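pinned: reference chain
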Amino acid sequence: FIDKKLPIKGPVNPYLFKELKTAPKTVAAPSRAASTVTREVARKATKKAAPKAVAKPKAPKFTPAKTVKEAEDWARNNIISGPAFEERKFINRRTGEIARIEQKSNVRYRGLSVDAANEVNKTIFDLKNRMGVPLPRKILAGNYKKQNFAAQIQGSTMRINTAIGKTPEQWAAFHARNAEAMAQIRGAEGAKLIQSLEQGIAEGSRGAQWTRMAEGKLAEIKSLRRYARTNVNDSLEGTIQHEIGHLVDSRGADTYGISGKKWRESVRSASIEMMDDSRRFKLSAYPETTRVYGAERAETFAESFTAFVRGERSATLGPKTIKLFESLMQ
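pinned: its structure tokens
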């Protein structure tokens, strides 16, 4: 017979199945419950043991300033590598003692609108976070209308020419005018101008001085017609990116912890690649215009950097150049 109060161990005869079903559940239940608890504990233990995915740190966000002064304060704290202020001492010539000390800011956005100041800050801030670029020690805006530059890097000082524009919109218009002029040179108007200059030179009736000027202009126009564009981008943002490219060129070794010799070789190799006819005509006409000053190599590198950070790749840039810039990405 079957003692329904005692548990049955071992295989169960199928014929006894009906009887077993009526057996008290108090004996078998603990076994099933224990099994359920065990599985639950094991599941939780496995879940706890599983390595958690490491969340990527969020990229710092740029917050636009509301005034030019706020933009200057923000820049001093976030995007320059030198001290925020410099002391200027004035000496009393009679006594030889210090008469007074003035604090001179290393960021001055005089003449820029708040939107333009914010664009300068954001452009440099983005490059700092994306590529860890070298930062300028000073950023000085001013009206340099007598000097032929939109912006420049001297040492580690960045200067921005407000004569080009005080707002991002004015800088965008400057870029549009340059692009339109280039289109005209490459088009029918450029062809007509070449024909007119060649005819005047052949006639030789306008004097030696005019002929020399015409020959220089003719060579310049013919050269420009081979290029796809004057600059990669000479909006305010593009101009700042170009100037940061010069800092990457000159201070990259220290910034990225690379030996000076290795860095110079990498920069030179990328520049030579981009100065080849198969690349330079797609990149920018600007470097060639600086050949007379011995700056063609440096300007080629800065224009290549600008093209890279603006998203251009193999259609414009060579493989060595792309590899170099990709190695700097954070």
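why pinned: The chain is about 55% helix and 10% strand. The CA atoms of residues 7 and 64 lie 77 Å apart.
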